[in-house]
């Protein structure tokens, strides 16, 4: 099989011109996530070598190297009960829009922790079955279906992807 440029599945995958382009995109996503979580304070306090260590740890499958830096991006002051906003993207197979992203706080004005269900009801209400209705969709993160009652802050700390975003897929419920 010819693996030349003409056989690359351009319609299905984004073709990246170089490793540098991939690194730049990754770091851009990490910076965007930190802007949402900490007003960019954490990433801006890091040195260039920390950014490089984060990337190299990911690229070389070195969890300890990656997490030594990424841990800082997952912290928040105890008095704040969570991040400023939760970095997330919701993907749906039933829409032309590539993903949904908007500002959403992990803690409600009354101090209650927002849940995955709260996020979906606000951002993508069609994904959540009505109380008495039939479940039409699966909500997946990392290939698992977390309970809708799971606090969003916990999900963001424990199930974010290396770019520090929660990537949530809404998939039509299998009919078999």
Automatic annotation (TrEMBL):
The keyword Membrane applies. The keyword Ubl conjugation applies. Residues 85-170 form the Autophagy protein ATG5 UblB domain. Keywords: Autophagy, Isopeptide bond, Membrane, Ubl conjugation. Its main location: membrane. It is a peripheral membrane protein. Belongs to the ATG5 family. Conjugated with ATG12. This is Autophagy protein 5. It comes from Felis catus (Cat). The gene is ATG5.
């Amino acid at each position: 099989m010819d693996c030349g440029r003409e056989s690359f599945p351009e319609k299905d995958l984004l073709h990246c011109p170089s490793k540098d382009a991939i690194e730049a995109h990754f770091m851009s996503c990490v910076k965007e996530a930190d802007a949402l979580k900490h007003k960019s304070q954490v990433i801006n306090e890091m040195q260039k070598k920390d950014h490089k260590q984060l990337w190299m740890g990911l690229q070389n499958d070195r969890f300890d190297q990656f997490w030594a830096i990424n841990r800082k991006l997952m912290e928040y002051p105890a008095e704040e009960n969570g991040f400023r906003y939760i970095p997330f993207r919701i993907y749906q197979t039933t829409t032309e829009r590539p993903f949904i992203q908007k500002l959403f706080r992990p803690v409600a004005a009354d101090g209650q922790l927002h849940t995955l269900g709260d996020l979906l009801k606000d951002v993508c209400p069609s994904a959540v079955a009505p109380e008495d209705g039939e479940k039409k969709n699966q909500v997946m993160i990392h290939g698992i279906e977390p309970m809708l009652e799971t606090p969003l802050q916990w999900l963001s700390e424990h199930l974010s992807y290396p770019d520090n975003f929660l990537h949530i897929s809404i998939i039509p419920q299998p009919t078999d």
